[in-house]
Amino acid sequence: MEVIAIQKSTLDGMKNELKALLEMTENAVRKYTPIFKEEKWLDNQEVCLMMDITKRTLQTYKDKGLLPYSKLNRKNYYKRSDVLSLLEAGHPYNTNDNEFIDE
């Protein structure tokens, strides 16, 4: 077993930094937990399957601002409630009013 000796002031500094890091983590969890508990988030594949659309159509919805999304680590996520709202409104690509072409 290896024993390493450090000064008490260095140990106290490390403790303080760890406490600050823990506090920052707890604050982030406290801030974002309600968002994820209230809402189910879906990825691209889940949305395409749920709406029975292609990835290209999904991209068009995003480009036209019809379906809001959030990006996390280069991956898109959609609120389930937003997808359901779009489904209830009907598939926008089936109408010519908003420049979509019938598929």
Automatic annotation (TrEMBL):
Alphabetized Pfam families for the sequence: HTH_17
Organism in which the protein naturally occurs: Sphingobacterium spiritivorum ATCC 33300
Organism lineage string? Bacteria, Pseudomonadati, Bacteroidota, Sphingobacteriia, Sphingobacteriales
Q: What's the protein here called?
A: Helix-turn-helix domain-containing protein
- InterPro entries given in the database record: DNA-bd_dom_put_sf, HTH_17
The Helix-turn-helix domain extends over 41-89
